[in-house]
Amino acid sequence: MAAESKIDPMHQFLVEPLGPRLQLGAFDISFTNSSLWMVITLVLIWIFMLGGMKRELVPGRWQVAVEGFTGFIRNMVDANIGPEGQKYIPFIFSLFMFILVANFLGLMPLAIIPGLHAFTTTSHFSITGVLAIMSFSIVLIIGFWRHGLHFFSLFVPHGTPKVMLPLIAPIEFVSFMVRPFSLGLRLFVAMIAGHILMEVFGSFIVTGFNGGPMGWGIGIISFFFIAGVVALEILVCAIQAYVFALLTSLYLNDAINLH
Fold it and tell me: Where are the domains of the chain?
């Protein structure tokens, strides 16, 4: 019984097919819980944008919210890229909204309904890594399309002494190539760590309240801890979406304006 009631904090990250397994050659293309929550994320973003783009003379709260998000991203792009960054606002805004909504959906307390639990798609490196590689690929395409081979001057900071070039250029190149890994890994680690903490403290509460007086004490303490972790996780969800969008805009600035 003890083994059966043991709570596995990693079970919440398990990707499971929601129907029959589908194979395309050596690839499993089954529709999974991760796929479902990504679809839910996109549908919610579509509804949010659709309801807030009515262009009413006296904007309602919904329209103000949408304009607030779009204005926030526009200001960030203007500050980091400049006027030429306007054409990339839709891409950066889409990244920001997808990550933000996916992060918050993963915090939904659906586990109170038997058989249901929220799934955080951004807690998988396969998702955050694809987003990072997509952003990095766009940066490379724009950089070489605008500057050709002169794009390699990005690895030579302005004012670098010639004698230091053999040392500085490889360091700058490695730093540049690490960008997609750090971009995807940062979001993945932040999401998975926070959800593991919530699961662990939640298990302390359950086991504590099922014990004696000492167990109740541990359960109450764990309750306050998990309340703090949840509040911190809400903040982290927003910060990680902002950081991902911010770094993407900075990388685009490098590709557009070089040093």
Answer: 11-257
